[in-house]
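Thread: FE2/S2 (inorganic) cluster complex, take 2
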Amino acid sequence: MDLTYTKEVLKHLKSPKNMGKIKNPDGEGMVGNRVCGDIMKMYLKIIKNEKGEEIISDIKFQTLGCGAAIATSSVLTTLAKGKTIKEALKISKDDIIQALGGLPAIKVHCSILADEALKKAVENYCSTLKQH
Ligand code: FES
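Output below.
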């Protein structure tokens, strides 16, 4: 079993990008994994561009969990920032793993958690829109 983290994982682990909270977010989503107990929360700020597309202008995360959970959350925020909501929803766990240069097999579920947190935050944004 390969237990090595790639350089990219270690980079995000040492200095995570977009870690923290957004005050009054337009969307937020929290997910957890019952088996390992890790918890992740994503916050979104959404603006509309001149074409009327909804853009993720800011994204932050809070993760209580393993190193890979922090690295996957961090790299995901860099992939999603500046993207339209539609584009962000297309980001998959494989995109996250690829952006990190790979993940040990036993840590693949950490990338799934990050992916689910983003999707939940977008769902939350969409559901609050419907209420107005
Ligand atoms: S060990 Fe569960 S998210 Fe990393």
